[in-house]
């Protein structure tokens, strides 16, 4: 134990998260392990499936199953709110991850009425009858924290909405609950921070969400190329879920070409060195739709499903490509940088801050821009070498697990729960 740790009292942290199969779960697992290793007490609440996948108990945390679904369900949501309220009563800090988990935690910690801006049997209204977020004293902890019986509420937002309609309306309500009732909101991209500040959040800060150290590859690049049937073609790798957020229709448009000497379809010169092979590692609800288009248009795209050999794929790839509508701090791009691979992608969310000069970014939906960036990378050795060197440098500079744990402890100390 370090001298600084010896001066700190034990902090009791309750993490709340919803259904997740990726970065959010790994992030909470890393924080839980780091906090327990520093002598703090941690409980994690979420769906049973997240414990099965991320094993928080083996990290030293106590896991309590709570049904936090990814879709609104009045009865189940009420049960989750009541369970969160009971579970977190003895916590110093309640740290929720994700918007739905954050809103349910706010309702559980603060109470339904105060979270919705209702006081003394009436709504708290601003000028002309508009609801206004309740205020709180940061120095005394009055207001929001008083309603939470001394518990401080921290919410990390890992994603932004990329769909509209009814889902967008519900999302907006949840955003306001989090902005008005959380003591601290941590965000994975500047645009999320601006939005939460605009909604009246008290304290908004960047979240530190590191990727784990990249494992060594087990196979040579040539072995991977042989498996994929790539021949002499350059490989462009995309890592991510086959879902609406990832902009995969744009990726297929880019793959359709035309490409120098190889056309755009896999039947038109598939071994031509100028035509890249697009390889997608991930699974999701759009797989069937994507497969049908790939077959119909004979696109040079391979859908690999979920893979455990990402380091091997990165070793064989010329670059990593993403066409996402929005991203925060995607672990796939962090891994690309650690592997020294340039990134060709969309300038959305937190991607520009991650990539810097280690790639080329274009606006979302710009098919010609993405295809042109790929062609420049493949045809001009100078830019490709500079971007690869920049990627390796940025990969070495990425924050690690210790920095992430210390960043949340700084928030907890600011909240007055330690020391």
TrEMBL record:
Keywords, sorted A to Z: Glycosyltransferase, Transferase
Low complexity compositional bias, start-end: 134-147
One GO MF term: glycosyltransferase activity
Domain of life: Bacteria
Keyword Glycosyltransferase attributed: yes
Residue span of region Disordered: 123-147
Residue ranges of domain Glycosyltransferase subfamily 4-like N-terminal in the record: 22-122, 146-210
Pfam families in the cross-refs: Glyco_trans_1_4, Glyco_trans_4_4
Listed InterPro entries: Glyco_trans_4-like_N
PANTHER family named among the record's database cross-references: D-INOSITOL 3-PHOSPHATE GLYCOSYLTRANSFERASE, GLYCOSYLTRANSFERASE
Stated name of the protein: Glycosyltransferase family 4 protein
Biological source species: Nonomuraea cypriaca
